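Q: Start with the shorter request: fold the first protein.
A: Done. Sequence, then structure:
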Amino acid sequence: MAFPERFSNLPEYAFPRLRTLLDQHAPGGDPIAMTIGEPKHPMPEFVGPVLAESLQGFGVYPPNEGTPELLAAIGGWIARRYRVTVGPERLMVLNGTREGLFNAALALVPEEKRGRRPVVLMPNPFYQVYAMAALALGAEPVYVPALASTGFLPDYAGLPAEILERTALAYLCSPANPQGAVASRDYWAGLMALAEQHDFRIFADECYSEIWRTAPPVGALEVADATGADPERVFAFHSLSKRSNLPGLRSGFVAGGAGGIARIRQLRAFAGAPLPLPVQRVSERAWADEAHVEANRVLYQEKFRIADQVFSGMQGYMGPEGGFFLWLPVPDGEAAALHLWRTTGVRVLPGAYLARDVGGENPGKGYIRVAMVAPKDDMQCGLIRLRDCLYG
């Protein structure tokens, strides 16, 4: 029996790959997991009561695009956060951003660009669903290094004209996973001008936008609105997973042009699964409330300060501007992760597992990704063990 070849050269996913690397070895101390970006701060107190009040909703099919109340709550949040008016026809509720970042590409990327195979641009390292979307489409994924020399953001404008002319879609994550870099207003405006010049769409993955160090990250929607960009060029993806410590709720949204959203909704109607109604009710309440978000952000800002203290004076250390990962330089990420586990019991992710080799080079090889999601004392203990083991 035959299988499709378009996924045949995929590497093993990052976390099974990590288990293969580490699990045959005993930990060198009490284990502390700092690998996966699964928030551990308390979820909002209203989740249980709202869910209990909405249980009857499991007995009906939920609306595909989202309830009017949820779409209104999302639109209200966008207006407060970005000072942009986005009507319900420009919104679509998602089962988390991963589903949306994949399916929106299926809905919006054409089979050809100027009679040739389309290109999908993505930073390298990157959230792995970007590549899966490109391969599912039959598009050519182009991995653009996001290095210290480029501010840990991809230099799309520096690509050859032949690539840009075939580009149908560019992904950008800000704050970036894994590096925590934040795209400036000028960066976004430049990318939108490039998209206009070469006629491609931008998918702004902004699921870490509410975890920041000193100032709220600029959003793609607000820059698009301020510069007069075509709404059909810019689609922004947000989630409650990090913002509200609700990764298991699997609730997010995409905002963009009405024409593109209509196509995303149509695909969902045929091949997707809408959010259960009780989940939509909890989501409605979460998008309408900022108090729990502010409290959550204070906890992360304290973790930023702890990390800065632990790694004070360490050459190459750069604390993140947003998100909750540290991107720490090492000679070799795999060797460092294995040595750290066997010596201390601290578990981190080799940076190479989040990137692809291009021309024999992997831009993540010389890094480890460290998730600062554990309780504060555990996190601090893990960072000290890590520092003393790898940099002492």
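Q: Next, the second protein, separately.
A: Sequence, then structure:
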Amino acid sequence: MSTAFDAIIIGAGQAGPSLAGRFSSAGQRVAVVERKHVGGTCVNTGCMPTKTLVASAYAAHLARRADDYGVVLGGGVGIDMKKVWARKQAVTMNARTGLEDWLGGMPGCRLIRGHARFTGPHEIEVDGERLNAPKIFLNVGGRALVPDMPGLDGIDYLTNTSIVELDTLPDHLIVIGGSYIALEFAQMYRRFGSEVTVIERGPRLTSREDPDISDAIRDILAKEGIDIRLGATQLAFACDGGGVAVTVAGEGQSPMRISGSHVLVAVGRVPNTDDLGLDKAGVHTDERGYVIVDDELRSNVEGIWALGDCNGKGAFTHTSYNDYEIVAANLFDADPRRVSDRITAYALYIDPPLGRIGQTEEEVRRSGRKALIGKRPMTRVGRAVEKGETQGFMKVIVDADSHAILGAAILGVGGDEVVHGLLDGMYAKALYTTIQRAVHIHPTVSELVPTMIGEMQPLV
């Protein structure tokens, strides 16, 4: 016996509850299947807990700089990791509970706890119960990639999921990986008081970024006392007393043994698609396991869509939510929205943060188009000087002929917010001259964006 629904949503991450709400408000029956926590990565192990921890780390960092601002503290700065953890947990649980209550109050919506597996193109089984629907939506997210490295399976290592559950402070955190998740935790724990070593196999950090951005990020982290080892193409792990040891080697490098108390593996993500029985539904995935979808997020099987981290179209909360918007617009609103309408936009939440939109400088160079580039160090931004936070710089690139904005990177105080003015201009298809002539509020970081545009030079 199989229970019929109008729609089944597998996974209660960023896209799932909102999509369930649309089916509910349309008077349709919808099942939401979640095998672990409602809210997915963002609420439980991603954005919300990590940015809450980042905020605590920033408070500690600012307290240590109190004398720079003429503020006198009565003693040294201490960290109570149990209170830090409790604050993080409260933020996460409030969000998770809110989503659970929302889903529970939706007419016609049933939240089912368990592991969904396909038995056919339009039927799933959840712990022995069979459900069917003409529309099935995969919103199953992803998890940390744990590569096969010598000795790793013989130690207790951390991932982004387990490290946010720590309520004690590592003496020495060794971070494997030099990209976004890795660097956020590296700086966070350094500010909490841990010794931190970052080990990256590539020649620079954040290889997705332009070299000048990568270099600036490295300088920011190194100034805080983070030890950074690049070009580490060979790693081996072993227990070392009550801790761990990592042997590091690379081309032209002699092997070096680094001892620490904890190891965080943050070298990438993989989709949670390997245990859903997709073969029984006939759903195609690529070589990395991502569900292959078209511009409207439909899989190769009629009536099955994939949203969020499992479709390879973006690994961010905002892209997952936009996936919901695209699907809902096409299904309910006769509004033909598509993934290809989306402009690349994301942030790196070290301090200061990086806000990135559109094309990088390297991508524009490879395209061969005529372009103009503007750069301005944060030392020449009044608001940054006033706040005593002058690390980083701003950069914008535009098309020399069409005057269209091609991309921007703002690494500096408020960079994750300031960049949206340029992003909105790109969506509005505004010319850079429109931004240049805007009158921004003083004193802000944003007010120097038109000045930077006015100082652009040909990209050579």
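Q: Describe the second briefly.
A: The first helix runs from residue 16 to 25. The mean pLDDT is 97.
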